[in-house]
Protein: Cation-binding protein
Amino acid sequence: MEALRILGDEHQSLAAILHAVRFMLKEVVSGRLQPDLKLFEAMIHYLDAYPEKRHHPKEDILFARLKARTDEGAEALAELDRQHQASAERIQALEAALAAYAADPTKLADFAAAFDHYADFYRSHMMLEEREALPLARKVLTAEDWAEVDRAFTQDRDPMSGTRGKPEDFADVFSKLVAAAPAPIGLGAGPYRG
Structure:
């Protein structure tokens, strides 16, 4: 069940990015940290390019196998499908809030609120997957199902093709984000250099 290990690792990485941005925004709002727009842009790009465009499609493969095996959990799986379908709208709202803040620094509170909304949603989304979908997968999927799901999860690994038309190694991007984020979240090595 390599897919479950990969999903767990990806959820941890996503949670770390969400937590880091929230922490940094709180510090910027309080005046204890200077904003790093390039770092915020890189983090939002990561959220768009990786979880929204790479992570969710892999989960959709897992959910399709679940739906083929059982009607159990149908309501939760339908909700997860709806949430995946609305991912472009959520990221666009976040990008718009960041662009508004970049154009007008007085929009910081609006960007922070938009990010909090996004992070709250994402936390609930991952919890629904981990509470409902993943235990159901462990329960009902066959060895053949897991072989297919594992294949799908392992064939599309880093380096991945990003949304900017060039290959991106998301492990490298994640490392750079952590290095640029201030302590205690990251290493505080200075401004983001993508």
